Amino acid sequence: MDAQTLVDERGELWLALAPLWLEREPREADYARMVEVITRHDISLTELEWIFRLELAPVLSRSQMSVAGEWRKFDDLQLMRRLVAHNLRLKGWRRKTWALFSGLTTMMTRHRFNELIERVAVARGETD
To answer: Are 33 and 41 in contact (CB under 8 A)?
Structure first.
């Protein structure tokens, strides 16, 4: 897959999910946008989990672990470049390695992602 195809297929979703890694809790508006984008892209919860773990967490967790002010300098274009570069290399042993360590890279945002999953399930009417 080439860079433009990645941006076309995943760009909007990646940018919508990025607030999960901010130093503050996502606002209601952030969650609403995430749910809306996920619903529009018709992504299953399983696929969303793997996007979170393999496509986003390896890139965004680095920013979360760095100096708190970095997010103020973080722009969408820079984020998209880093995500595309990571995902173009995400094959073979790299995919397996990130899958193995994904528990560590998602640990600090897991509670936010779980909240998002609940909201997506409610929006889809998949609750008990």
So the answer is: no
Cα torsion 24, 85, 54, 6: sign = positive
Q: Closest Cα to residue 83, out of 62, 110, 114, 113?
A: 62
Q: What angle do CA 103, 105, 55 make, to 5 degrees?
A: 100
Half-sphere CA count of 30, side-chain side, radius 13 A: 16
Cα 120 to Cα 75: distance, rounded to the nearest angstrom: 26
Tokens of 8: 């076309």
pTM, two decimal places: 0.86
What pLDDT, in 10s, does the model give residues 54-109?
999 999 887 765 555 455 545 788 889 999 999 999 999 988 998 888 888 888 89
The values of phi and psi at residue 127, to 5°, are: -90, 160
